[in-house]
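Q: What structure does this chain adopt?
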Amino acid sequence: MTESSAVEIEIATRRLMAALDALESAVERRRDADRDENELAARIQALGADRSRLADELDGALVKARKLERTNREISDRLDSAIVTIRSVLDTGEDG
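A:
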């Protein structure tokens, strides 16, 4: 083997090593990207589940709020009726 052949083999070996290093780095970056993508998908799924749960809780809260409003109106009507009755009794008592 001549000295020039040895140099060419050395250059080719260095190029091959550099290419392998670049390939290894690319594989590692891809692995990281895949992991990040999987983590993002898991987070999105968790957010979807949270959204569903919160929507159910909101629906329940709206039902309770409507019941409370209805009860409040009924109590207010009863109080108004009681006030009218008490005033009527007081007015009758003052006239008598």
